[in-house]
């Protein structure tokens, strides 16, 4: 066990991972989303996709303690419950694809999904139609596949909420609740597949410390009156992470 901890502390790129997860915590604290969009492209430079997915899910669970109490009372729990249920059913499919696709292909998929999400949000895409339970379930199902394959647990649901007419407070609460549920689902699936090693667990514990505290700082910064500022700050950080994590650099 000590050897695994030493390896976690001495891994190449640890400083960059700590810095990235700290920035991601700030963004998640004041927007309710963004951790995976920021962390996954950068972490993919140093680690294989399966380890990145384990890290993002484990650290996500750690941050839940900071965000969930406030979000629980503000979220639309029945709606989020349906999204999470459908994601639960499809995460195994994403993990199955993860085992079969080349690492380089997965990194390009991460870059493509994050880029499309960012462009759609920056362009101000809006959905004003009626969302039936069937469509809502479909959104959750797609989120589960993408989360299991890439670790990007939020883009589909984030795009759905931010592109709609919901208030910043509602978007923030719903995404926090959904991402917390999906993180648990992914970790359980990884444990059943024996895909979480001691090295990954120790590295997640190291990263969870800065992530937890910067998430609290970000949450204390949240003010519904500055919704536009929060969104554009998040967009800028996500864009920088996507560019940094493009496979062309390594």
Written description of the protein model:
- The protein has eleven helices and no strands.
- By secondary structure, the protein is mainly α.
- It has one domain (2-249).
- The radius of gyration is 17 Å and the shape is globular.
- The two termini are 31 Å apart.
Question: Main traits of this protein?
Answer:
250 residues; mainly alpha; 11 helices; 81% helix; globular
Give me the number of helical elements. Answer: 11
Poorly predicted runs of 5 or more residues: none
* Principal-axes shape call: globular
**First-residue to last-residue Cα separation:** 31 Å
User: Any idea what the radius of gyration is?
Assistant: 17 Å
Membrane topology: Multi-pass membrane protein
Organism: Roseovarius gahaiensis
Keywords: Cell membrane, Membrane, Transmembrane, Transmembrane helix, Transport
Family: Belongs to the 4-toluene sulfonate uptake permease (TSUP) (TC 2.A.102) family.
Topology:
Elements: H1 2-10, H2 14-31, H3 35-46, H4 49-74, H5 77-100, H6 103-122, H7 133-150, H8 155-162, H9 168-192, H10 198-221, H11 227-244
How would you summarize this macromolecular structure in one to three sentences?
The chain is mainly α.
């Amino acid at each position: 066990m000590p050897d695994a901890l030493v390896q976690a502390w001495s891994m190449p790129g640890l400083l960059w991972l700590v810095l990235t997860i700290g920035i991601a915590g700030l963004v998640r604290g004041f927007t309710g989303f963004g951790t995976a969009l920021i962390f996954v492209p950068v972490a993919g430079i140093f680690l294989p996709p399966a380890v990145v997915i384990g890290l993002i899910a484990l650290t996500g669970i750690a941050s839940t303690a900071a965000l969930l109490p406030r979000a629980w009372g503000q979220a639309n729990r029945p709606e989020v419950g349906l999204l999470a249920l459908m994601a639960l059913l499809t995460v195994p499919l994403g993990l199955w694809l993860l085992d079969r696709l080349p690492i380089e292909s997965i990194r390009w998929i991460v870059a493509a999904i994050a880029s499309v999400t960012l462009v759609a949000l920056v362009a101000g895409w809006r959905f004003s139609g009626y969302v039936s339970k069937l469509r809502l379930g479909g959104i959750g199902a797609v989120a589960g596949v993408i989360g299991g394959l890439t670790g990007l647990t939020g883009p589909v649901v984030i795009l759905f909420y931010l592109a709609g007419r919901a208030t910043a407070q509602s978007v923030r609460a719903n995404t926090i609740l959904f991402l917390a549920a999906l993180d648990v689902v992914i970790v359980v699936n990884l444990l059943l597949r024996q895909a979480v090693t001691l090295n990954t667990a120790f590295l997640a514990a190291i990263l969870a410390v800065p992530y937890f505290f910067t998430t609290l700082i970000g949450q204390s910064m949240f003010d519904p009156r500055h919704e536009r500022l929060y969104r554009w700050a998040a967009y800028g950080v996500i864009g920088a992470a996507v560019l940094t994590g493009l496979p062309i650099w390594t």
